[in-house]
Amino acid sequence: MMLVEWSWALVVRRAWVSAAAGLAVLVVGGAGGCGMTITPPDLGWCGGRGGGAGAGCGEAALESGSADVSSTRTISIQCVDVFVADHGIHTSLILPRSDGTIVQYAYSRFSWAALDQDQWYRSLDALIVPGDGAIGVREFPGPATRENVLHQCEVAGIYPVVHELYLVTVSEERCRHLLANLDLRWQSHQDTAIDNPRRGLKFTRDPARYSLGHNCNHEVAGWLRELGCKVDGAAMTAEIRVREVKRRQGEATFQGGTEH
């Protein structure tokens, strides 16, 4: 019975979100569509991808000197891989910590996610009537690889399930900065914390109100921008594409679709 009820809730909510997203795109012009297209930051000659902090290394050449004397020095940019998780109509962000563990952060409506008031007949109200926001957190063992993240999500029985993971390479410094901000944001209201075993997340109330114009996907898009990414699209839905620039040739490929 619970599975049937959840399925109806998902179907109804997806329909309302899709309709609202389509309307928003028509109103605002909608460059990039209802979802989001993510362009990772240009980190120069970023090296290999791996699990934890410092997974890759980008190098940039700097020229200095006078007309008579010039020199070139190389600085290294430490890179890490983060993951955008697509949960169907929701998204969350998974980041590596400096100690080798990984953490998932998600934003939602407090009543919907923390209190499980997610029945299908609440979908329209939850979508269009502003309500209290919530920040959820979950810690995992590393490394921060696609295979391990998917394995940990499966072991934890994450709900809603992860349909797809999108890898984005960013600078370690920006990742540490975002994590510090999210940790503080969660900890600042930990007196309101609710441990939801169904979702596997610990939620606290968040000052940012949840609304049609500020849902989980908008929050994730904002976090990606803090990581130095460019995000195009209305970010109303979990339709995601990640643009990967092959910096040596200047070519571009996509995860989750082709460029139009």
What does this protein structure show overall?
- There is one protein chain.
- This protein has 260 residues and is α+β, with helices and mostly antiparallel strands.
- It has one domain (2-6, 28-255).
- It contains 6 helices and 12 strands.
- Strands 2, 3, 4, 5, 6, 7, 8 and 9 form an 8-stranded antiparallel β-sheet that branches.
- β4 and β5 form a beta hairpin.
- The chain is globular, with a radius of gyration of 20 Å.
- The chain starts with a helix and ends in a 5-residue tail after the last strand.
- 33% of the residues are buried.
- Mean pLDDT is 79; it is low at 1-8, 11-31, 59-75 and 248-253.
| Overall average pLDDT | 79
Strand content: 35-45%
- Structural class, judged by helices and strands? alpha+beta
- Distance between the ends: 42 Å
Helix run count: 6
- Percent of residues in helices comes to 25-40%
Sequence of secondary-structure elements = HEEEEEHHEHEHEEHEEE
Shape: globular
Total beta strand runs: 12
Name its key features.
4-stranded mixed sheet, globular, 8-stranded antiparallel sheet, 29% helix, 35% strand, 260 residues, alpha+beta, disordered N terminus, single chain
Give a quick precis of the structure.
The protein has helices spanning 2-28, 110-114, 123-128, 146-156, 172-187, 216-226; strands at 36-39, 56-65, 70-86, 91-96, 102-109, 131-140, 164-171, 194-196, 201-210, 230-232, 240-246, 251-255. With 260 residues, the chain is an alpha+beta fold. The strands form two sheets. Strands 2, 3, 4, 5, 6, 7, 8 and 9 form an eight-stranded antiparallel sheet that branches. Strands 10-1-11-12 form a four-stranded mixed sheet, covered by helices on one side.
